[in-house]
Amino acid sequence: MAAMTAADFYDAKYDDFDIQPLLENDRIMIGYTKCFLEQGPCTPEAKDFRKAIPEALETSCGKCTPKQKKLIRTVIRAVMEQHPEVWEELVQRYDKDKKYRESFDRFIKEED
């Protein structure tokens, strides 16, 4: 097995991204999801996240650091529970043919 280098991961600057405001404030969470759906403005962070979504979906977050995986699982679980209709819109946009659904669902269900 080859050793992973820093270049094999997404930028670690988001390892300590504070997700609490998203989880505690519906307006902020919906703002991020609207950005991801290209239905609203994006913060610089949300724009970076949006760029990574297709690859992260295809690889089940293969380039995510362990901290990023935990953050992503937490946020996605919250969107799925609190806004299932928005989650379906995101699935339709990024995985319309459900090519990655099974592997990504396994990723979401993994323990951190």
UniProtKB/TrEMBL annotation:
InterPro entries: A10/PebIII, OS_D_A10/PebIII_sf. This is Ejaculatory bulb-specific protein 3. It comes from Eumeta variegata.
